[in-house]
Amino acid sequence: MLHAGAQTAPDAFVAAFDPDGALLYSTYVGEAGAETGDGIAVDAEGNISIAGFLAAGNAQYLSYGGYGYVTRLGNGAFSTVLGASTTATMLGVPGRGIAVDQEGNIIAVMIATASDLPVTPNAVQSNLIGDSDVYLVKFTP
User: Fold this and answer.
1) Which residue, 40, 75, 83, 129, is most buried by CB atoms nearer than 10 A?
2) How many Å apart are CA 101 and CA 23, to the nearest integer?
3) What is the mean pLDDT, run by run of 10 residues, along the chain of 141 residues?
4) Which DSSP string corresponds to 54-101?
5) Where in the chain are the domains?
C-alpha cells in the first residue's frame, strides 16, 4: 500500500482484483506530502477501508495534513482526517489499524498525542493521560 514514485514523498495506493486476478481498480490516496497506508480491511460487500498517516500539503482527497485518515472505497465512499491541534498518527502495524465488523461499521485504531480530540459521552477515557494514548473511532454505514 505504499508507493515511492518520482516524488520525494511516498503515497499510499490501493488496488482491487477479482478472484481470477484481473485488476478491478487502482487508486492513489493522498496529497503532495507523504502518506502511509497502515491498515486495510474489506467488508462482505467488497468495500475497501484504509487507514494511514497524512503528513502535509494540499489535499486532493483529504482535508489537510499531519494527521491520521480513514478512507472508504466502494458503496458509501468517504475520506476523513482524524486529528486535533497536534499530530495524531495511525497505529503503524499493517492490517491492525482498521477493521470492519459484521454490520459494516468501520473501526479505526490510532495513537493519539493530542489532548483535544473529540470523545463521545460516556467514553471509557475522556482525556489524554500521558504523552500518548490509543484512540478508537467508529464510523457507521
Assistant:
1) 83
2) 26
3) 53 89 88 78 92 63 58 88 59 60 91 78 88 83 78
4) E-SS-BSSSS-SSEEEEEEESTT-EEEEE--SS-EEE--STTSSEEE-
5) 2-139
Q: What is the pLDDT of residue 52?
A: 84
pLDDT score at 62: 40
**Residue in 71, 65, 52, 55 with CA at minimum distance from that of residue 111:** 52
Characterise 59 by phi-psi region: left (phi > 0), alpha (psi -120 to 50), beta (else): beta
pLDDT at position 95: 36
What's residue 118's pLDDT?
A: 81
Phi, psi of 41 (to 5 degrees): -145, 145
Nearest to 63 by CA among 39, 50, 79, 40: 79
Q: Which residue has the cell 520525494?
A: 8
